[in-house]
Amino acid sequence: MEGVKLDRWGYQVRTSSDSCISAINAYYHQVLSYGRERRVILQAPQHDKDCVLANILAAHFLSSSDSSKASSHLQAAKSRLDEATSYEKAVFDAVSYLISEDRDPDVAVELHSKLLKKFPRDLGSLKRAQVLCFYMGRPDLCLDIVKQVLPYNQLEDYIYGILAFALLELGRMTDAEVAARKGFEINKQDFWSQHALCHVLQYECRFTEVVQFMEECASTWSSCSSFMYTHNWWHIALCYLEGHSAMKKVLEVYDNHIWKELEKPDAVSPEVYLNALGLLLRVYVRGELDVFGDRLKILAGCVTDQANWHLEWHLDLLILWALAVTGELSKAEDLLKGLKSRLEEFSSLLAEAVYEYGKGNDKKALELLDPDFDASLCKMIGASDEQLDVFNEVWYNMLLNTAQAAKAIEVLEQRIKKREGAPFMWRLLERAYSMEGREEAATVGEKARKLEAAYFK
């Protein structure tokens, strides 16, 4: 067909420009590899201003940062829709709805599922569907879509990392490990497969193994986005923390591989703040924040800037805690007010509880949460189970700080059945038993000491 070229997936795109197709294909690679050069898609419509696919992908890229330019590209795509290929029309339908102000997430998922039934090799659209399902807190929907296209992509880069993440978020760790290792075998620089395998090993308390694996992979991360780069190092720091390594190792990761990312000219600050705050909250829960000096105060000073607010609900919750715990109460109250108007009731109560916890008011914070609180029910804030688990740790501490040792024992014993190798959980259980005057405290304390000595010798 005259004036038509094939993209990376082998699907027809209406353009005569090799440079346009090259920019589109480069963008696919950046999205799937969590690259820091995703702006390359803006070159595609420069090479062919009439290309529907180039314009709708550019509109999607700009939709969260520059609505005016996004709208311009959307209109350019719409104006040439009659001349587009069937593939471009399907992508336009799915993406234009996804970036519309009144979108229904369920409809957006259905449109992507419909697109991928007809064009199953389009892993760029699969990645959009995965991200959409993630922010809906629906890994089950993501898994259904991945299974739908997997037969057409058996040896393709990146699909197994997407599959693995859906599986691990559903608690299917054995299957997730198989998928992640398959993705890593196909492409050693598939960062999402690396990340998924890290999740599995970390959940199984294989902390030394995680650190060895991820630090061996770290030399490949220079091309990663600010989020992916600092998030991978967040996992490493967390394994040092959970494995009871010397706190200086955690501090070194924070300084050299998370905070230092901000020195790069193309760093995306909120993506760095997300992982920095997530790590400092874990340190705070463990009573080790003094080792970090004034770093939390410095970070809180950065996130008083409202340009960092309301980008992601998960980030907002972490900022809310940081502002409250450092005494920026006026700013914290402004953020909380905005959050309460946006979040569903369950997540809104979590936001209020995080604010009270930051102020040191454990009793009031605890009253706001369900008596059987489980942070995994808050997936819709845009966080993985591993990221959410810190809020469970906060809850355990609040139970103990308000002398509800019996309840703490109940939930900690259940938690330890799932993750027997986590020393911190045993330490919390030891504390709870001691508060109740139970003899088991000594046995539990000895278990904790043995685990602490087992990692990072």
Q: How many E strands?
A: 2
Q: Tell me the overall shape.
A: globular
- Give a quick account of the main beta sheet: strands, pairing sense, barrel closure: 2 strands, antiparallel
Euclidean distance between termini CA atoms: 65 Å
Number of helices: 24
Protein name: Tetratricopeptide repeat 38
Organism: Melia azedarach
Name the descriptors.
mainly alpha; 2 strands; about 65% helix; about 450 residues; 24 helices; two-stranded antiparallel ribbon
Write the layout of secondary structure elements.
Elements: E1 4-6, E2 12-14, H1 18-32, H2 43-47, H3 52-62, H4 67-79, H5 86-98, H6 105-118, H7 123-136, H8 139-149, H9 159-169, H10 173-186, H11 191-203, H12 207-217, H13 226-242, H14 247-258, H15 269-285, H16 295-303, H17 313-325, H18 329-340, H19 345-359, H20 362-368, H21 385-401, H22 405-418, H23 423-436, H24 440-454
Antiparallel strand pairs: 1-2
Helix pairs in contact: 3-4, 3-5, 5-6, 6-7, 6-8, 7-8, 8-9, 9-10, 9-11, 10-11, 11-12, 11-13, 12-13, 13-14, 13-15, 15-17, 15-21, 17-18, 17-19, 18-19, 19-20, 20-21, 21-22, 22-23, 23-24
Protein name: Tetratricopeptide repeat 38
Organism: Melia azedarach
